[in-house]
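Troubleshooting: if your tokenizer reports a length mismatch, compare your output against this known-good record of 512 residues.
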Amino acid sequence: MSIESPRAAPRKKLPLKERYALLTRDLDWEPSYVDREQLYPFTRYEGIKVHDWDGWQDPFRLTVDAYCKYQAEKDRRLYAVLDGFAQGQGHLTLSDASYLNSIKLFIQAVTPLEYAAHRHFAFLARHLEGPAPRFAALCQSIDELRHTQTQIHTISNYNKYYSGFHSWSKMHDRVWYLAISKSFFDDAMSAGPFEFLIAISFSFEYLLTNLLFVPFMSGASFNGDTPTMSFGFSAQSDESRHMTLGLEAIKFLLEQDEDNVPIIQDWVDKWFWRAYRLSGLVAAMMDYMLPKPVMSWKEAFELYFEDQMLGGLFPDLDFYGIRPPRHVDDAIAEKEHLSHQVYKILHNFSSVAAFTTKTPDHVHLDWLSEQYPGTFDTYYRPTWEKHQRIEAGGGRMFFRGLPQQCQVCQLAISFTEQDDRRKISFRRSEFRSETFHTCSNGCKWIFDREPEKYVQAWLPVHQILKGDCGGPTIPDVLAWYGIQTGDNGEYNGSPDEQFWRAWHNPSLRHGE
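Known-good structure output:
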């Protein structure tokens, strides 16, 4: 007779919520030999009051194991696209080599911001006081590093065939037009941890990444750039999670104490305007730097900001006492003009930029007239037609002087007044017996609110005039920027344009 040993009962699989809690929140501990203020020294000086850190709810409840498996699957699909594009000489299927100027601007202006976000969310993963927001910050830090890597790997394919893709990280620190994006993140990273969350997780993610990673990436696909479209849509699924976490962060802070409301309202007002001004680069990319445009800046702004953010998000926040951002009406009034005025700056000063520009042809001008029927033909088309006449006579106009930069957003001061679109908008502020200049009501309000911070701004034009940018001549400054011959100036006749024509000319391609 045999006696069967009792079989162990199968272990019950824990529900997701319980498993998530065990692997994240339950790993927290109370400090025994230092007090909490010493352990978390940055969570009180901004004036934000948090009474219950356990009130933070992570809507995704991902563990590290599940997160890594999910991202690994996305990476496998992305790198399959990159391999296929490289092996099939996919760069020859682009709509035109001039399209790559928008990608050069992307890697110079956006990719370093991903890395900066990785660093600062890692900082928050150490210094936020609750285990749930620390874990959320850790996941976002890894996301941002992954975005940096996938963008570099994707765009590096073009570096083998075209100029201007080198030295982008050095350029980000030095070149005048990249101070627009760099100053945004420097401003956020030098703020406190809660203001950083409102700046990046709320304002930047909601306003800018939606416009950059959806309509612009659709434009990339429309122009034959499937790798950029693939990394953009891969990143956008992460950005959607970041936006949800940003909304959770702002609601958490608002629910903790009613004294937090005016502080957060001030941050929403400030960072909306800063993100909006930075979006001017995206506006120029969408309307002018895509040879085959797919959606105008105005249409994207109405869909992703006015309908979704202003019409969908802010009514929810009204329950907590948060109103739409200060100066939002100025942004709406400017949607007919932003892309034209920013691209005009880039076009006029591309002799000292790390990409080339060109005057829109008649087909492109007709498209812009259709997209902006009330303003383009009145204010902007005559100027571009004048450029066409100059170039038909063998000329090309570049500004030889240096633009004046806004003390806050660091764009060249060349926007126009709402009530007179032919008059430059120019604001002055006095601080410690000195005069400082800003480009708009929004930037002046930001400066006047924290003048001690913005008087320290590193303005590239001021640094050139001080002699801190490699020397007194333009070649000295270009060398210090890392810009090489052929990277800058006019697109037509540039090395990129010549390579493109040669590769698409059968007789030249076969050496006939």
